[in-house]
Amino acid sequence: MEDLRAELAEGLDEAEWNWLIPHVQRDAVIFVAEQLDLVDVGVALASDNVASVQSWIDDQLIHKPSVTQISDWNGDRTKRFNSLIVQPFVLIQEL
User: Fold this and answer.
1) Which Pfam families does the record cross-reference, listed alphabetically (predicted)?
2) Which of 31, 38, 41 minimizes the C-alpha distance to 66?
3) pLDDT tens figures, 34-62
């Protein structure tokens, strides 16, 4: 598990909204609330920690971007996010 955490932490990056649009179009982006650690969410997804993931979904802490969010971000194409790829998903948090 520590290896996975270290590997995912190395993959943490910043991305501009423009770079994320193709991933949104293929329904692969998951928005992560700022109170969660992106790497923790990535580890939970990658290790099939259903209890944690379902809890975050139930609490609306992780979800697909809403139409409103996408519209807002389309209005500012230089908007930046922390991002983490956990195949087949791209996890993002607003900066």
Assistant:
1) DUF2288
2) 31
3) 999 999 999 999 999 999 999 999 999 99
